[in-house]
Amino acid sequence: xxxxxxxxxxAVVAAFAATTAQAQHAQxxxxxxxxxxxxxxSLGTQDGSSRExxxxxxxxxxxxxxxxxLVGVGSSGWSxxxxxxxxxxxxxxxxxxxYPSATGGFFVTGGIGGASIRASVGGFSATDNGAGAIxxxxxxxxxxxxxxxxxxxxxxxxxxxxxxANVGQIGLAITLH
Length: 177
Hints:
Elements: H1 2-21, E1 32-45, E2 52-64, E3 69-82, E4 85-98, E5 106-121, E6 124-139, E7 141-144, E8 147-159, E9 164-176
Antiparallel strand pairs: 1-2, 1-9, 2-3, 3-4, 4-5, 5-6, 6-8, 7-8, 8-9
């Protein structure tokens, strides 16, 4: 229920940003860029029969190769606390962001790297590291010359010898170009 409300709120904010700011600022991408956002995510595991909703976030930064291609590093994470325990899944990866139009705000992102899943309860914790990957979509709504409000959807996953987890996340980021 909370996941649906946050998704609806993100859609309203994105629509508002589009109508009030998009036409006022050109989509200029050059030099250093940074994007960081928060939202909700849904975790699925290889052995799980259902998905778990929790808070998620995404942060990435890097350099601009051209108005259509950005490269950098990023990290996506999902976390949930329940009954005194916490479960966290996160990636750290090399990323590329591609804008099909040099003047548009829509982009596709992807990356590969490392990932981990961590469970903790009381004073005990266990971490399992493995490979990670991310794929996502987003749209930069310009609100200032070098600043955008960016609704996004990402799917990221981790795989190790012992674990297989995937997260679908929806969020809202601030992006600086």
